[in-house]
Amino acid sequence: MRASRLESPTVKRCARLTCYSEVTRVLEGKVPADAVVSEARSLQRSSTARSALAVAFLSTCFFLAATRAQAPQGPQSTTERPPASPRTFSAPTNLQVLPKDLSGKQVHDIMEQWTNSLGVRCDSCHAEDHDNSGPDGRPRLNFADDSKKLKGTARIMYAMTEEINRNYIAKVDGSGMPVTCGTCHRGGISPEPTTAQLPNGPPDGQVAPAGEQGPQPK
């Protein structure tokens, strides 16, 4: 009886679609064979649908990734500043104490040293050219103009330091650094005098300056 039931088409479908325990329950008459087959088919369809959805999802992901990789790159962000162009300096004119073969860049570097040593700005010596305005609307400086008195003073002082270095400092062995504007000015337009106050007057053997008394003998 049981062997004949195993040969029935319904039980064979159950065996293909369900596990052995379910087939045993059908053979024992506890569960209708058609109900087990229906449930197994339902589970099979559900599993197949989930597999199809998973395949479709993965296919979509691969398609989007490939499309994005092949898409042309958009324009770069406009927030980046372009590299600044190198600054240029016009050839100097009206050089009277500086060497006349200096380039514009060399003269500019010397002027930078002078302004730092004296604590001044370019317009302290150079007059404004009101007929020539810069991008900011302010007048440019006319470096060849000699109308400012301080420019003439700067020429005299530069000639003085050159004479000191050439005729005196250069003749002293191991003299070290040459004399510059900063040697005396030290960042100020007017150099401050430096005095050394000796505690007991001039050293022994020296005569005190006029109007002053040296140390009295004890």
How would you characterize the overall build of this protein?
With 218 residues, this protein is mainly α. Among the domains are: 2-67; 104-184, no CATH class. The protein is built from 7 helices and 2 strands. It has helices spanning 2-6, 9-17, 20-27, 33-70, 104-118, 149-167, 181-184; strands spanning 127-133, 139-142. The chain has a two-stranded antiparallel ribbon with strand order 1-2. It is elongated. Residues 14-20 have low confidence and may be disordered.
What descriptive keywords fit this protein?
mainly alpha, 7 helices, 2 strands, elongated
How do the strands and helices of this protein lay out in sequence?
Blueprint: H1 2-6, H2 9-17, H3 20-27, H4 33-70, H5 104-118, E1 127-133, E2 139-142, H6 149-167, H7 181-184
Antiparallel strand pairs: 1-2
Helix pairs in contact: 2-4
